[in-house]
Specification:
Layout: H1 14-41, H2 51-54, H3 59-86, H4 92-103
Helix pairs in contact: 1-3, 3-4
């Protein structure tokens, strides 16, 4: 992954950068969950060792967690982070107050 730092964002805006990095990891995790599900369902892991055959992964739980995490990221975390990044206040509490007002979570 390439790191691009603009002159406006140097040594600041760590929260949006963390959310973007976490979003990439979550997207790659969603894609890589499919081969894990396939290998767990057909029993091909049994050819390597017998330890995996006794307790297979609960893939329905993994998919449910990933789908809910994607939903929360897309509907709550990413819009909140966009409003936080675009806020003009310079102090931390002012930016959060602005984000909550715009996002409609808290009416002040």
């Amino acid at each position: 992954m390439a790191v691009v730092v603009l002159s406006d964002d140097k040594n600041q805006a760590y929260f949006p950068k963390f959310i973007v990095t976490f979003g990439f990891i979550q997207a790659f995790g969603t894609v890589l969950l499919l081969p894990l599900d396939i290998s767990n369902s057909d029993g091909s892991m049994c050819s390597f060792t017998t330890d995996f055959c006794d307790v297979p992964f609960d893939m329905e739980l993994f998919w449910t967690i990933m789908f809910w995490a994607n939903l929360v990221m897309l509907t709550i975390v990413i819009p909140f982070t966009m409003f936080y990044y675009e806020a003009d206040d310079f102090d931390f509490s002012g930016k959060f107050r602005f984000c909550f007002q715009i996002f409609g979570v808290v009416e002040v």
